[in-house]
Structures
1.
Amino acid sequence: MELVNGRYQIQGIDLESLAQEYGTPLYVYDAKKIEEQINTLKDAFSGLKLKIKYACKSLTNISILKLMKKYGVEIDAVSIQEVNMALKAGFKPGEILYTPNCVSFEEIQEAINIGVMINIDNISILEQFGHEYHDTIPVCIRLNPHIMAGGNKKISTGHVDSKFGISIFQMRHLLRVIQTYNINVIGLHMHSGSDILDAEVFIRSAEIFFDAAQEFKQLEFIDFGSGFKVAYRDGDVTTDIKQLGEKLGASFKEFCKDYGKKLEIWFEPGKFLVSESGYFLVKTNVIKTTPATVFVGVDSGLNHLIRPMMYDSYHDIVNISHTEGINRIYTVVGYICETDTFGTDRKLTEVSEGDILVIKNAGAYCFSMSSNYNSRLRPAEVLIYNGEPKLIRKKETFEDILKNQVEVDF
Ligand SMILES: *Cc1c(COP(=O)(O)O)cnc(C)c1O
């Protein structure tokens, strides 16, 4: 968003007016930012056969999926429901990678029957798969290179205690299973976790991978997962995509030469594509002064945006109703009946009751992790595309909450 004549806007659309038109709380997404992120990634790997598989768990709205399709991005799904959502959005089965963890073999078979590419991440399922399909269905294998990465233990997946992937130390066993069942492995995958800071982590994982990859003779792609870090506040260090493109691109080309074939390089960004595109608009209900703090109580809470409470993540907050004047220190909290703090000791331009605040970086893992806790309704979502706001989800109604409940009379 940008400040123009004292008003915050996105693609020329006034944000506070959107709050008035659609009501608060409200999620707003900027399609232009999503397109920019895609182009940054495409440019960084322009010399290679690149495929971007959007990790749609980060923001699963069907119109966002259709937007990704328009921009030439494919899908990484982690549940059969996400697979079905992607199909509904118009993706072909061949454009969807299904990367489940600890799901039933029946769900994997359902995905195979649909025709999506399966990413297998444990030896037990791989054995069942081999027994059932042998070499008739190509698969991708998720390896865990045990590179410690990620900003928070909950979002790190590469460490040795992690439940994800087949350990690189189980390589002998893995190959034994593959050979015994004659399994057709066409892809190798890794995803070390979210918020990886520097290109070196990728390079180190890549080197482990390239060694391992020589054991597989029918590879068509290598999938480096995701974990690109984006800026949550001014001055944040972020993954340097350009540098990553140069370094990883060079070692990938070298590997392809050794391997004797030009493989595709895949990534599965979620946060990188959508985090910064999202803005969460909330209204100030109450200013409450206690002996210790001035609280700003807003019309939302951890039911709509749980990242600060769950991951201790920092989300910038801006008062868009008053953009000039003195700054004061506030702690911004939600209306849920337990502690739900969006931000502690934040400097905001003086807040009055009724003011609209914007919580930034609200694109990834915000709406998609929302709930009806406290029997609250989930908010509407608006996408700004080509300078026009488009409603892509209506606000829930009381009937939505009751819909699947069964009333028993006593
Ligand atoms: C969650 C997830 C991603 C996306 O991670 P981000 O940090 O949002 O980019 C990619 N791949 C897999 C397998 C995931 O589970």
Note: The pocket of pyridoxal-5'-phosphate is lined by residues 55, 57-58, 76, 78, 99, 191, 194, 225-228, 268-272, 364 (CB under 6 Å).
2.
Amino acid sequence: MEEVFELIKKEEERQARTLMLIPSENYTYSEVRSALGSFLVHKYAEGYPGKRYYQGNEFADQVETLAVEEAKKLFGVPFANVQPYSGSPANAAVYFALLNPGDGIMGLELSSGGHLTHGHPKITFSGKYFESIRYGLDPEKEKYFDFEKIRELALKEKPKIIVVGTTAFPRTLNWEKFAQIADEVGAYLMADISHIAGLVVGGVHPSPAPYAHIITSTTHKTLRGPRGAIILVTDKGLKKDKDLGEKINKAVFPGLQGGPHLHSIAGIAIALKKAGSNSFRDYARQVVKNAAVLAEELKSLDFDLVTGGTDNHLMVLDLRNIGIDGKKAAVLLEESGIILNANTIPNDPNPPFRPSGIRLGTPAVTVRGMKEEEMKEIAGLINLVLKGKKNVLKEVETLCERFPIPE
Ligand SMILES: *Cc1c(COP(=O)(O)O)cnc(C)c1O
């Protein structure tokens, strides 16, 4: 047992003295960590508030209802399910609610920044049990989406659902254009905002609520909550199918999951409440500002950025002009305490385990209070490691000491 706590302590220290630049990671709040370690972890509550299969759920019902109401209010939607264990099962539940085996899922290719659960063929449930229809990015187009081509593909393949969501795309998503295509072919439009949910509620990325039928999101990325996910149905979604909420509830439980993780749901309620505050808006704004400065600074140091820059919290560097592959770069940076991940670039000539790029973002360093000045410093440190092959561990530790992880 001591061994495990030793390791947890070491992980805490590792996080304190390194720069967390993986854009899907973040620091949650101490209140959320308390909820995760609370007595709620003991309780079974299969079902939904007021309709449970077990007794003793008086307070569980109130916790879940709080989270549902916060989610509805925050995103301006009439329905929310807060039970999904994480982002992948949330997406699975939507497919099971709406599709039959073999129906088409149209999603962004993995190598272009889509997610495995968006119908990636062969190796995922979403591409094995459903028909996989892929659209890509087109570097020739401004902001990389060729909507005419995407429309033609949708008209030809007639997907039942079009998924729009990204894990490594640095630009604002044009929900309206995707909605026009989905409406024209009669498909459901599902917006997976796992990466950008915090930016949406912070007002620095347009909300998909007026355009999509369904929205899914993890709660542990820019939203700063515990690991978990939410599924939302919009007014537009209920107009298309008034039973959509009911279908989603049934797909989550009993369709896919058993007992909800009440401790996570309590954490979600806390994080959503905080995300509605003015200080969260300031945070989201600073995340985007920091990413813009980091991107500009890296560009001025001759790094190539996929799409030429960023509108959101992340960027992808194409390292081909530096003469180092993404995996080597990520390992080299880790030795200097700069933690990020290797990433494919659109139409990557390299194999996925040795892709040509790296992905980095600002959600976590912004929680530490870092601003524009520090972004310039970080760009300089990355430059020293990747071009000068200099170890900057000392400099990174000094920077981390100046900006401790908040309680
Ligand atoms: C992170 C992510 C997921 C999956 O979330 P997990 O909690 O890792 O299962 C799904 N979709 C998108 C767009 C994501 O960024």
Note: The longest strand covers residues 104-108.
